[in-house]
UniProtKB/TrEMBL annotation:
GO terms for cellular component: SCF ubiquitin ligase complex. InterPro entries: F-box-like_dom_sf, F-box_dom, Leu-rich_rpt_Cys-con_subtyp, LRR_dom_sf. Residues 8-41 form the F-box domain. It comes from Salix koriyanagi. PANTHER family: F-BOX PROTEIN YLR352W (PTHR13318:SF95), PARTNER OF PAIRED, ISOFORM B-RELATED (PTHR13318). One of its GO terms (biological process) is SCF-dependent proteasomal ubiquitin-dependent protein catabolic process. It comes from the Eukaryota. This is F-box domain-containing protein.
Length: 160
C-alpha cells in the first residue's frame, strides 16, 4: 500500500506563497524553506511578491539581508534601520543590495542609525535607486559626498 499524501502537500505553490506572505519573521521563513522543495519555492515566491521589507529589529548581516532583498523582485520600500539588536549592514552590504533587480523600483529606503555605513556604500546604493521618493539617513555619518549623490540620482525625492 502506498503512502497517502498529506493534505498540506496538496496545496499548490502559489497558495503556499500567499500563506508565507503573512509570516514576518525571517527566521520562520528560513525554517519553512527547509521543510521541502515545494515549501522553499513557496517562500521564494512570497518574498518576490512583497512590496515592503523591514529588517529593523532583526539581527541581520550583509549576506542574509542581500539574499532576501534579491528575492524580493517587487520591493518598493526597504527599511534596514539599526535597532538595539543591531542590523549590521556595512558598505559591502549596501553595494550587494544595490545590485538587486528591485533597486530601481524602490520608492522608500531607511538607513536610520546605520553607523557602519559610509559615503562609499550610500553612493553605490543611491546611484541605482532612481525612483526614490523617501530616504531616511538620520543617525548616519554620511557627508556632503552622499548628499550630492542623492541630489544627482534621486529626482523624485520628496522626503529625506
Amino acid at each position: 500500500m502506498g503512502r497517502e499524501e498529506a493534505e498540506i502537500d496538496r496545496l499548490p505553490v502559489d497558495l503556499l506563497a500567499y500563506i508565507f506572505g503573512f509570516i514576518i519573521s525571517f527566521t520562520d521563513l528560513a525554517q519553512a524553506s527547509s521543510v521541502c522543495r515545494k515549501w522553499k519555492e513557496g517562500v521564494k515566491q512570497s518574498l518576490a511578491q512583497r512590496n515592503s521589507m523591514s529588517f529593523a529589529g532583526w539581527k541581520m548581516d550583509d549576506d542574509s539581508t542581500t539574499r532576501l532583498v534579491r528575492l524580493a523582485y517587487n520591493l518598493k520600500e526597504l527599511d534596514i534601520s539599526r535597532s538595539r539588536w543591531g542590523c549590521q549592514i556595512t558598505d559591502n552590504g549596501l553595494y550587494q543590495i544595490s545590485l538587486a533587480n528591485c533597486i530601481g523600483n524602490l520608492t522608500s529606503i531607511s538607513l536610520w542609525g546605520m553607523a557602519r555605513i559610509t559615503d562609499r556604500g550610500v553612493v553605490q546604493l543611491i546611484s541605482r535607486a532612481t525612483s526614490l521618493q523617501h530616504l531616511n539617513i538620520g543617525g548616519t555619518f554620511v557627508t556632503d559626498e552622499s548628499l550630492l549623490a542623492i541630489a544627482d540620482s534621486c529626482p523624485h525625492l520628496k522626503v529625506s
